[in-house]
Amino acid sequence: MMSRVTLRVAFGAALVLAGGRFALAEAVTFKTSDESSTPYRVSTRVKATGKPILSAGRGKTAPHVMTARAEFAFTERRLPSGGRDALSLRAARDFELARMESVVTPEGEAAPNIPKAETTVILPQHLQFIVAEGRTSGVDCYCPTSPMTRETIDLLELPGDPLALTALLPPKSVDVDESWSPPEWAGQMLAAIEAIEKSTLTCRLASATDSTATISISGSVKGQRDGANCEVTLQGTINYDRAKDAVSQAKLTYSVKSSIGAVSPGLDLVMEVETHRQTLEAPGRLSDKVLAAIPITAPAGAFDLVYDAGPWGIRLRHSREWFFYQATLEHSPQVAIFRLMDKGSIIAQCNMSPIAGATAGQHVPLDQFENDIKTSLGARLDSIRAKEQLNVDTGMKVFRVIADGKHTIAGPKEKVVIPTTWIYYLCAAPSGKQASFVFAVESKLVDQMGSRDEELVRSLQFTAQRAADAKTTQ
């Protein structure tokens, strides 16, 4: 009797164990949409170490070391699809925290004479409500209530963004240990590469239980970003909650190598990223009413950026094609430099500067403005092609002078002469405040630039002067 009972128990236990193995071996189905728009609390921590590659002129680079830490916490709800592929991935986000601290320290012989640069960037309270939209080049953000800055959109470019992680999930059921190659756009989106050359990104269902599934990620994405060659190697895991049909956690390592670009330094760095997602019982400020008010297509101007030169009392509103490059706000020569990028290539450079104020209703005499242009260009100037005053509704007076000439670059073997057009603007407010702009563009690219110089100038606002933000390195 005992032997029969023992056999029965043993046989039953074997069936249970076999059943468990069969359950684990079942194909796993993943869900990429969220029709119910479940609210999630998302927390992400990033730690980065590496070397920014800065130009020292004459083909040389200046060695530096960088460390950075970032922390993000926000409530998130999915939004209706805006199209196919990356465009289908949209979310509303309410940030509690978005903060990055970085330290760049020079190396080499000159290091003792150069101070380290410490930067802290914090998302301001008026920009905490964000709409995130998938693109093949990453996740774009805008704030429905206020224009963002270049600094804040860079801050919110989250490595391991939940929308990009969702893009990696397989479209059909997969078995444990089965691998798949995500669509090329999904790897491009995760790596935030603008123009892709090659992706070797591979995902594998490493393990699964009745409640969770673990996906391993490995491979690289190669292409261009902001006109610079870039390669991003990725390694890590994604945990998927099968009961809630959602990504619950991710641990990723990004290894980034990029050359020096027109608007950014080169990079050789490693980022460690950890993201956690938990469902919430209540959506907080992201109510159904708030989500229903967000249009499928972003309103005109939603992706515009603002740039504030506080010490000058000057503000610009511009498209994201204009990249802030560098500025000297409180020391001579005072200048803020922007570069216009189009399809990964630099089209033009804009130098903006304040001019000493004039008597209310007055401005720098036009003859003096033209003479200053001739003096500045010197032998580079061939001719003044046009002089005109623009009609501006704001009451600001805007004068434009277009000059043609040539710019000579000394190459390693010979000089290169580039036909160049300079477009100057003198802007004067009724109060007597003044500013000047000069746009430098290769003459053959003037048509490609179109009216984007004038649009930038027309966005100029004279504001109350205030001190520069001491926390942020310009």
TrEMBL record:
Alphabetically ordered keywords of this record: Signal
Tagged with keyword Signal: yes
Signal peptide residues on this chain, from the entry's feature table: 1-25
Protein name per its UniProtKB record: Uncharacterized protein
Native source species: Caulifigura coniformis
Organism placement in taxonomy: Bacteria, Pseudomonadati, Planctomycetota, Planctomycetia, Planctomycetales
